[in-house]
Amino acid sequence: MEFIANNMAPIMFAGLICFLLIGFPVAFSLGACGLFFAVVGIELGVLPEALMQALPLRIYGIMQNETLLAIPFFTLMGLILERSGMAEDLLDTVGQLFGPIRGGVAIAVILVGAMLAATTGVVAASVISMGLISLPIMLRYGYDRRIASGVIAASGTLAQIIPPSLVLIVLADQLGRSVGDLYKGAFVPGFMLVGMYMVLIFALAIFKPAMVPALPPEARSLKEKDGSSGLPSLLALTVLCVGVSLFAAHHMETIHTWFTGETVEKVATDETIVFAMCFGVALAFVAASINRITRMGLLSHVAEKVTFVLIPPLLLIFLVLGTIFLGIATPTEGGAMGAMGAIILALLRKRLDYKLLRQALVGTTKLSCFVLFILIGATVFGLTFQGVDGPLWVEHLLAGLPGGQLGFLIVVNIMVFVLAFFLDFFELSFIVVPLLAPVADKLGIDLVWFGVLLAVNMQTSFMHPPFGFALFFLRSVAPEKEYTDKVTKKRIAPVTTSQIYMGAIPFLCIQLLMVGLIIAFPGIVSSGLDEKQNYDLDKVREQMEADMPAPIDFENPTLEGGAPDAGAAPAAPAEDDPMKAMEDAMKNEQPK
């Protein structure tokens, strides 16, 4: 019993691992393990009984947490957009736009995956939508099954790192940092991943062109009535909009100064990108609208169609991320506006009915309850674990690693990568992150940067063979048996599970490379954050003292005019000053 009492923390952690390995639900494993070891600790005299009285207050605190309210909002937005037809229109238009080049459909999947990630934040919605729409097209025209599967799964997991990401909301809550700061820090790494995925496809198009063929001419439906491509007009509009965006980005400080009325010397990178994009998108929308209303023929039909297909998701991106980055709305308020925007978009497309709304609400309720139960279980476990000095044990275990900060980061990322084989990001966030955050803070690691690093690493939990959830989602919509294609009338071979697993490995390596780049170049994350204001406390104190009114001289009181009050009683001598007498008495009573 003495051994158990002295080693309660490691035994408790090992007990949780055993619960999880036997397949018991995570939320109930956490709660049961916490309550069991609480009883054992109380019986052994390790824990005071009064500690458990804090449990109801902690659970009430979870339900009062406004940050977590963003999760159901973003989930509802994603589920409605999944059924509103936006993903289908995007994939069809962007796929046709890039289809004539090798790997064009895969590039379209990556770009659409990034747009869906920036609007929905839900991995399941992105993977299932793109699997149902783009996978049959890729199989129809000869794409390698491994590349087709990998690019869909990897593009869907972009919703894990590109804001508004659910994992970033949970990590912000567990790390005690602002959701907006984590969104800003993850902005650049998320789109760097998009670029790295596209580089892989371009490399395959050059060195292995048979794996990523172009769409045949008969499959290209996006063209003008006279048969021309209509691309010169689209290219001219794109160049004009990009030029306007770059001009706005270059003069962002001037624009902010004019808009706010105060001198702005520097604007954060994320705000610059979002604000500059708004100028370009607004110009494209105005030009396309004038072209459609006046029928002047300034733009081709292709340019007009592409513009109106891209405007809704870009509008939602600004409605959610733009308002958060610019400080107009909190993440919770941004999620609420995004959900309302998704509902309005579905109504305009005449896709919203009672059945769709009911399905979306049921799905949102299930996911929200899932998160809440895991968080309650983690709270029960965490309270007991803290009572038996578990954080101190973890700190001694990790803080003494050789290599200081770098050694800690390497070990932690390897551990998270291995645990991601068996746990999803919610479970990792609620179980592992509360143990790692205090150690990282004591080592001097910025917790916002640390949270983004963990988010990129946790993204691999969706791509790990054989337990990656993105692979499961894709498996559920990929053809398991040979079938006849509706367009070509050819027999199409099925997609095997091993092909899905093999296709995930290259993109998994890219995600791990991104983890290494963030560790090697911290500015990838910190460049998107607002600069910390450094204050000279001595100057602040001096300014406060200068602003304070002059003290009243009680020995020589004066009137407002400054002359002595003739009617006042003579001031008491310094020896009879009651304040001074009190101070002398207190000094005499102090122990020597």
UniProtKB/TrEMBL annotation:
Pfam families, A to Z: DctM (PF06808)
Compartments reported by the entry: Cell inner membrane
Gene Ontology MF term list: transmembrane transporter activity
Gene Ontology cellular component annotations, sorted alphabetically: plasma membrane
Compositional bias per record (Low complexity), positions renumbered to this chain: 560-573
Protein name: C4-dicarboxylate ABC transporter
Role, per record: Part of the tripartite ATP-independent periplasmic (TRAP) transport system.
Bias-annotated ranges (Basic and acidic residues): 577-592
Superkingdom of origin: Bacteria
Lineage of the species this protein comes from: Bacteria, Pseudomonadati, Pseudomonadota, Betaproteobacteria, Burkholderiales
Primary location group: membrane
InterPro entries: DctM, TRAP_DctM
TM spans (from-to): 7-28, 67-85, 105-135, 147-171, 191-210, 231-252, 272-294, 306-326, 332-348, 369-388, 408-436, 448-474, 500-525
Keywords, in A-Z order: Cell inner membrane, Cell membrane, Membrane, Transmembrane, Transmembrane helix, Transport
Region (Disordered): 547-592
Signal peptide limits: none
Residues of the TRAP C4-dicarboxylate transport system permease DctM subunit domain: 14-524
Membrane topology, from the record: Multi-pass membrane protein
